[in-house]
Amino acid sequence: MPPLDIARQRLHNERLVGPPCERPEDVVQWLCAVQAQDYAGAKWAIAQRTTGVTEADLDRLFNDGKILRTHLLRPTWHIVMPRDIRWMLALTAPRVNAANAAMYRKLELDDAAFARSSDALARALQGGAQLTRTEIARVYEAAGITASGLRLAYLLMRAELDGLLCSGALRGKQFTYALLDERVPRTRALGRDEALAELTRRYFASHGPALAKDFAWWSGLTMAEVKAGIEMAGTHLEHEAIDGKAYWRASGPAMTPGLKAPLVHLLPNYDEYVIAYKDHSATLDPARLSASSGALMAHLVVLDGLVVGGWRRNVKGKTVAITLNIPVRLKKREHAALQLAIEQYSRFLGMPVTVS
Q: Which of 75, 259, 265, 278 has the lowest tally of Cβ within 10 angstroms?
């Protein structure tokens, strides 16, 4: 199977081609978790997998708690569904805490410090309160807890990993935090093995074909845990050897849809199509664009499943300026496909877009 077929299968399984998801919530549910330290980029990633959704629509879902943003996989933010947040935290938080252990020690954060800070937060947020990062820092200070810079960041992350906090509604452009138990009704708990099998099955169904090390990178789990998850997923998964590598995907006929080529996607910086894999050989052609190329800007331009350049955005009042860097020569029909992608982004933002 040539690399482009892997790319096309991923485009289909990630809902970037073929039937889109009906609602933004369905996108998040299907992908399990959408990397979201860049909130604006995460919203655009979700919107590209459904139809007719605007940035304002996603802000409303976020504010209403229909989708949540928290630290979940690896030490970074992800958008997840409320129904999934607790069992995923129970499965992956121990690995994130292990990754954070050196920073915890450096910042003099031990179990006693986390217990004190959590108690202060629980009392301050009880009853539906939602506080910004600055306001929480004041709560900590009033409780005699030093909290600024990295120390504040790791205190908040630990509270998220412990299932105490999750995202609240936006206050203007500021994020707030709320108590998870007040924001999300209790859901059915999964045992560790059940959770591992569930996450494994859903990752390879939505991101496959993918390698075991891709799943380990995405989830933050150990290779031993990944292998156990694949074994527990059983007949839900199958693999195929390509160039000596075992690519796993959901069982059944492989979907390699014919693209209505050319097809261009303006993907955000942490889109699951790129960030969810350790091995990028199927989507990044070294002969066309090296990883060290200056064209790999903040966001990525993808042509027929392959990364061919980069783009940046700059919001200026009520317009958005996009800067493109595409070192490969585009044909006339490919230019037209690029223009369609730009128009789609403009509709999502509800603002005109200029391009240079």
A: 278
